[in-house]
Specification:
Blueprint (H helix, E strand, L loop, with lengths): L1 H24 L15 E6 L2 E21 L6 E17 L5 E16 L6 E14 L8 E11 L8 E9 L5 E8 H6 L7 H7 L1
Antiparallel strand pairs: 1-2, 2-3, 3-4, 4-5, 5-6, 6-7, 7-8
Length: 203
């Protein structure tokens, strides 16, 4: 009788392990997720939810940044081009609603340029963007945390424009927290003096 109980227990344990393994690796249907993940991600069921992960690389530019150097006949727009490698992970709850999104980005061949003269300033950039949704599945409720750096540095020279630190953006778009050096924030606040070295390098 004791041997029979042990055998039954082992059978139940094995069946449980098989069921767990099936759930852990069974692909989830992206169509049932809200919102659907990007096409480059692969989804699987994990625990009480779903995780979708993937990688992609894409290039862009030269694109007009809308940043203007100089004035009058000497004015020129700054253009941006780079290659971006992204590693993305989207987490969904048991109802298929998105709860968290994390994107790691690494830029290569990045440069700001002056299309009138051909002058360029190379830059490096890597960052991690984390979105947490107060209401699962509702993108408008995301609180975004951005950590990383973006350094613009001409060859054989010191940086002329940079961001390095962390900032948190509330669902309504306001900045809840920021730390570190961020010339982009200074520029958005109206401090055009942060462009002097960058514009001089591109002139």
């Amino acid at each position: 009788m004791k041997l029979f109980r042990i055998t039954c227990s082992l059978v139940v344990l094995l069946l449980s392990l098989v069921a767990f393994a099936f759930v852990a690796v069974h692909p989830a249907k992206a169509q049932s997720l809200n919102p659907p993940p990007p096409s480059f991600e692969t989804c699987k069921t994990v625990g009480n939810g779903t995780i979708c992960q993937g990688n992609r690389t894409f290039s862009y530019g030269p694109d007009d940044t809308g940043i203007v150097c100089g004035s009058g006949v000497n004015a020129f727009d700054i253009f941006d081009s780079a290659t971006n490698n992204q590693d993305a992970s989207w987490s969904y709850d048991q109802n298929g609603n998105l709860t968290r999104r994390v994107i790691h980005e690494t830029y290569s061949s990045g440069q700001f340029s002056n299309p009138l003269t051909g002058a360029v300033v190379p830059y490096t950039q890597h960052d991690t963007i984390t979105d947490v949704f107060a209401v699962p599945g509702d993108l408008s409720t995301a609180t975004e945390t951005n950590v990383g750096e973006n350094i613009f540095k001409p060859a054989q020279d010191a940086p002329v424009f940079e961001y390095a630190g962390r900032f948190v953006v509330a669902p309504d778009g306001t900045i809840e927290f920021r730390a570190g050096q961020n010339d982009f924030f200074k520029l958005m606040a109206g401090d055009t003096s942060v462009l002097q070295k960058l514009c001089a390098a591109l002139a």
